[in-house]
Amino acid sequence: MTPERAFEQHYPQLQSIISKVLDHMHDFSVLVSMDKFLPFLDMFQKESIKVDVCKLILEAFVKYQEEPTNDPVVVNALLYVCKTMHDSVNALTLIDERRVIGHLITGFLRKIDFGRDFERQLDSYVDARSSFSSLETVLVMLVESVNLLAMRTREVVKGNHTRKTAAFIRACVAFCFITIPSIDDVFTRLKLYLHSGQVALANQALSQADAFFGAAISLVADVPRTIEIDHKVKSSESYLLAYMNNFFSTLLVVPDSPDQGALYLVRSLLNVVQEYTWELNSGAKMSIYLNAVSLLSAMSQEYFLYHADKVDSNDRLYGCDKKFLAEINRLVSTLIEAVFEHLKSLTSEEELKKQAAIAIGFFNRLLCHADLSRPQLATLALNLWNLAQKHGYGNTKYTIRTLEYVKQKGSSGHKEYAAIAQKMIIQTKM
């Protein structure tokens, strides 16, 4: 059987043959070892038809291959099939077509498993990256898979890396750091930088984790103000706010680099937030500032709420050092001042509702993190409560639950909360 143009008249029949074979033969180790299997594919000279046939093969493999495989015959044959589909993608290829091909190739790659031979597994991902570099879906899957591989390595050694496993972790980290910039979607890159940094941190690769977090911080400035979801254009601020919260929760356990100043990652992130172009009258920036205050409050504790295993966070590095606490206080003061300035600027009828939301959010953070036995902070909390209630724009159900919480704290022996609860009044808009 040799490839000839004469078969062009019989493509439907040839496709029907391959379809029926795939319907009845699900053991791909037998199927691809046939002498005529790959030559049969070469009979399809028209690219679009050949790609359709390759899709049929990959769909069958993903559907019927229940167990992972590392059979070299199967892997090499289906890599050829995947490469045929990948090479058909160009600038004119429709997005849906790219998505289908990417989904099939990632489905195949996920079926390849070399067990405990992690180095061979990583090599297969490196080969896949070079073979399928045009498909963003595949690149994302490869980064996620390599991160998973690093965590599987950590699980095997129970977090106690040897020189060999530490070198392997660095190889995984390098793979991710090289691959992520080739992904076009900003939001995906942000997610992968943070995820990869968390994986590096969990494996005690601290300098590499810093590099990932630094790259993520630099990328925040490039986040577009809108995002398209299901063919609808929406504001990206809700996504960015959620991302920042996730980032803050990670930064709590990230130790400062000896080559940088105290809290350099937090300061860098806040600088980017300050310079970012937010929507007019948006409350997202203030929400981030208030969440940063919560983070800094947690950082001022003698012992942090949680830690990364076998990583000394700043509570152990600084041990409540006065200079470190002074830096925290300086940042908190700057953030609070920025929030107050923003609250003062909200004066129009439309802005008063946002003012109330920010004020009650600030009030709740004081409840959680401030020492309300100090008169200045108790007065500040009451002023914020009154501001939230002043024009009757507060969320009544939310404020009622907040008041109930303060009363409950007061009745459980916290006198400062009881004193505040007596002065809290709920107003509604007439």
TrEMBL record:
The keyword Protein transport applies. Keywords: Endosome, Protein transport, Transport. The keyword Nucleotide-binding does not apply. Its main location: other. GO terms for cellular component: endosome. It is found in: Endosome. GO terms for biological process: endocytic recycling; protein transport. It comes from the Eukaryota. InterPro entries: VPS35L (IPR029705). It comes from Stylophora pistillata. Belongs to the VPS35L family. This is UPF0505 protein C16orf62-like.
